[in-house]
Every structure is written in C-alpha cells, then in structure tokens.
C-alpha cells in the first residue's frame, strides 16, 4: 500500500476515545423518549403538503389528465360537451386551463356513460349482486413495497371509478398515514372485529354449555364492549371521495398476543375467519367494489385473517436473491399454515359427517417492485422462470417520480405533474397504471367467473 493512500476508517480506532463518545448505558425509558421524538417528527413529515388545517386534500386534475387518463374522450369534444351542458362541473381556472376535482370527474363520468359513445368504457365494469373483491397484499419480508403497492392499487381503482375500502392491518400504520387517517387507539382499528367474532363464538359456546348444565366460559369487559361495535363504526372517509379507510396504530399489535389467548380459551373458534365474518355481517362487502388489505411483514394472526378473507393475493418482492428466497419461504409458510388448518378442520368435519372445507383464492400473483432494468433484468428473468404463472408480466420500475412521491408521504397519483417534466410524469404513472391493468384483469376475470357460476346455479335451481 502506498504511504500516500489513507488507511480504511476501521483501522486505528482508539478504544479510550471511543468509550468517551459513548452515552451512558441505555435503559428502557430512553426508548420512550425516542418514540416521542419520532411521533412528533412523523406528524411533521406526514403533514407536509397537507392543507393548513393539517388535513390531506386531493389535488385537482387538469383537462389533459382527465382526457388522457380518466375519461376516454378527445379534449376538443370534452370542452364542447362542457359548453353545451353548463350544469356539468366546469372546472376551475382561466381559459382552456381547467382543473377538476375527483368528485367532478366522477360526475362527468356518469354523464358520458349515459350520453357518450357506446363503444367506450366510461365506468368500470362491476357485476350486479356480487360482493366486493378482496385483495390482500402480503409478504413477510419488510421493505418490499407492500404498502406502496396497496396504496397505489387503491388509488388506481378509485381513479377508475370504483368504491374502495383500504384496511390497514400493520400496526406501523404507514397506509393510515398515506391516507391521512386519524386512529386514536386499538378500538378504532381491526382489533374490535376480531374481538367481536370471538365474543360471538363464546356466546354460542356458552349457550351449549348452559343447555348441558355446565358452567359458562368467562366473558370479560373487552368482549362485552366489542359486541357493541360494528365494522362500519371503524371506517373513516379519506381525502379521496371514493376511498374509505379502516386504519391502524401501534396498539393493534396486541391482537397478535390476544388472539392465541382467545383460541386457547375456545379451541373450536375459527380465528382465521374473524375478519371476513366481520365484513360480511356488517354489509361491508356490499357497500364497496374493491377491498384492499395491507398486512404486516410477518405471518401472524392479522396476516392469516387477511389471507383467509382475500379473493386475490398479491405478493410484492424486489428482484434480489434475498427477496426471492424470502418469498419462496413465505409461500412455504402459507402452505404449511393453511394446509394444517384444513387438515385439522376436516378431520373433525369428517368425524361429524360434515362437508370438508378448503382455502381457495381466485388468483395469486407475485409482483416485482423497485425494478432497475439496467441491473436486475437477468435475476428478474430467473425469478419469473421459477414462479411462472404466479408472476405478473409487468415489473414496477423505480423512477424518480416514484421515489419523490414516497418521500412526501403521497402516492404518485397525488403528485402534481407540473412538478416534473411531462415525460417523467408519464413514465412514473405508467409504473402503477400497468400494474393496475394486470390486477384489474384478475378482478374482472374473477367477477365474470363468479357471475357465470351464479347464473348456472340459478338455472339449475
């Protein structure tokens, strides 16, 4: 080594000097202080770009965006229609530079669906009489783009005209921050849904025990309170007119400890059905078109509930060896968990002469996120080859716009395209537009298949 070259920084560290740079030993109280600082900082960062009252506002969309991305109509014809129908939303702004709220766009969509060309899709297809499609976005490795993917799918679906519910099951609450949600405690999260389902199962068990002359199982204040809450009570509107939120905060994590305690108290309680039961009983599946479940980065009880409730499972991963390896283990864990539940349940059902149960999903897709085509194409092709039809064909590229939107606690659809050059905006948008196109195809295909099955059953009924 030349004498002119500096040594690497890990040589010649003086232990005495290093000890003097240390703070006193850290006790648990220091975590509380760090958490308090982080909470204040998180609030500050989350509110940047919010309105002065601290609430998020959805930006307006220009005539160019409306005609390019939201309503398939030529700009000149769009302007003619507005002049002809002054009762329609006219937008704000001078001359031809008009800007429209999403509420305006939804009203305009309805007009064009009634009056426009018959061969254009002004409103997305949704079969009458069938429940919402439930999508779970899951993987037990953190940092793979779960929340970003879930949020952008919700926004894509909303811009497409669907009524969307987002359920945040991650106690970190990142999705809740993106959606501008306010969640006071665990009683404003999904926790009461799980508690209520257990309480109802316990009530049913105690009725059986009473008829048999046996003492009832204990019923505490938490369960009594949960019985008074419906899923609808927990849902809050967001700054998007057609996206609602069931939010999360740190205390939701207690569900991971409480659920197994409940299960020990009542072995026959099918804990995996609690979330889907709550949504079905309170009519949530009928009030929305699409429900998106954002899960924590672990295969815990909340994630198991999300997966059991889902019609479609989406698994984001980066094009790296570690994320591919972790995702393979995630699928292995899913198999072990759900096959074990099936076997346990069906052993009892066979004994009692009941039909067997099984978990089933309309579709499962792994989505490559944060993709760098210059460096990751070979590995992405290998992943595609091994996962086969479990993969989406499009890979979400990491663009400057995607990175900047994430730093601002926004989705790319919330970013004003005037902050970028037009090409950057179009590329950034395409990243999630193409993912939405593939996911939408899964949703429509599943709905169509359900519809055919329903009509066949009615014909034979």
From TrEMBL:
Domain named AAA: residues: 133-321
CDD domains cross-referenced by the UniProt entry: ParAB_family
InterPro entries membership: AAA_dom, DNA_Partitioning_ATPase, P-loop_NTPase
Highest taxon listed in the record's lineage: Bacteria
Pfam family, one: AAA_31
Identification of the protein by name: ATPase
């Amino acid at each position: 080594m030349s004498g002119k070259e500096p040594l690497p920084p890990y040589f010649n560290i003086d232990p005495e000097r290093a000890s003097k740079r240390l703070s006193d030993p850290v006790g648990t109280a220091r975590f509380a202080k760090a958490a308090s600082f982080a909470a204040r900082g998180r609030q500050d960062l989350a509110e940047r770009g919010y309105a002065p009252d601290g609430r998020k506002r959805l930006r307006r969309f220009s005539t160019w965006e409306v005609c390019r991305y939201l309503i398939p109509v030529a700009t000149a014809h769009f302007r003619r229609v507005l002049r002809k129908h002054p009762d329609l939303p006219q937008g704000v702004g001078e001359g031809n530079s008009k800007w429209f709220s999403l509420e305006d766009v939804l009203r305009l969509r309805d007009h064009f669906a009634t009056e426009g060309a018959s061969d254009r899709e002004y409103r997305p297809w949704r079969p009458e009489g069938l429940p919402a499609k439930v999508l779970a976005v899951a993987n037990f490795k953190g940092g793979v783009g779960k929340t970003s993917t879930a949020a952008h799918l919700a926004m894509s679906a909303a811009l497409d005209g669907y009524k969307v519910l987002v359920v945040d099951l991650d106690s970190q609450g990142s999705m809740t921050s993106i959606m501008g949600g306010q969640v006071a405690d665990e009683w404003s999260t999904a926790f009461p849904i799980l508690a209520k389902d257990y309480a109802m199962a316990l009530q049913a068990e105690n009725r059986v025990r009473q008829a048999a002359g046996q003492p009832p199982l204990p019923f505490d204040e938490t369960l009594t309170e949960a019985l008074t809450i419906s899923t609808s009570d927990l849902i809050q509107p967001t700054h998007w007119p057609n996206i609602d939120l069931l939010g999360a905060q740190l205390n939701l994590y207690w569900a991971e400890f409480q659920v197994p305690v409940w299960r020990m108290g009542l072995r026959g309680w099918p804990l995996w059905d609690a979330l889907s039961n709550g949504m079905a009983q309170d009519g949530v599946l009928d009030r929305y078109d699409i429900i998106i479940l954002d899960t924590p980065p672990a295969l815990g009880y909340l994630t198991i509930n999300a997966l059991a409730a889902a019609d479609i499972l989406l698994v984001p991963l980066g094009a790296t060896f570690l994320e591919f390896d972790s995702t393979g283990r995630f699928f292995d864990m899913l198999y072990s968990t759900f096959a074990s539940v099936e076997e346990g349940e069906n052993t009892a059902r066979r004994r009692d002469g009941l039909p067997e149960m099984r978990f089933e999903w309309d579709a499962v897709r792994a989505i490559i996120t944060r993709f760098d085509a210059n460096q990751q194409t070979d590995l992405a092709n290998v992943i595609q080859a091994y996962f086969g039809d479990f993969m989406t064909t499009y890979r979400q590229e990491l663009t400057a716009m995607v990175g900047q939107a994430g730093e601002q606690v926004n989705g790319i659809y919330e970013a004003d395209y005037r902050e970028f050059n037009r090409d950057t905006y179009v590329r950034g948008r395409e990243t999630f537009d193409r993912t939405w196109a593939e996911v939408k195809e899964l949703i429509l295909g599943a709905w169509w298949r359900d519809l055919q099955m329903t009509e066949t059953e009615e014909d034979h009924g």
